[in-house]
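Sequence only, no structure available. Ideas?
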Amino acid sequence: QLQLVQSGGGLVQPGGSLRLSCAASGGTKAVDYYAVGWFREAPGKEREGIACITGGEGGTEYKDSVKGRFTVSRDNAKNTVYLQIVSLEPEDTAIYYCNVLNLWGQGTQVTVSS
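Reply:
I predicted one. Tokens follow.
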């Protein structure tokens, strides 16, 4: 049974960087078979999709508001998808989730504050 385990996140100052990880295990196929989405849920707001990487060739797409600061990548050997975030802003404070086939990771908190 496929499981997604997230890591990374934490408290970061504005302008800082983070890398979030989403490790897949237990599935019958490697993570590069799947499209993986990244979502975030800010306090008082609905969960929103912010980035994704397709299966196979690994094409990426981003929400306009995060383009240029967020980068999705994949390490097939580690069966892990990453979300690299640079130039963090207080508005990026949220719980971040990865998603594969409607299966969610456990979420990881990112707090941007001085």
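The two ends are 41 Å apart (CA to CA).
Hope that gets you unstuck.
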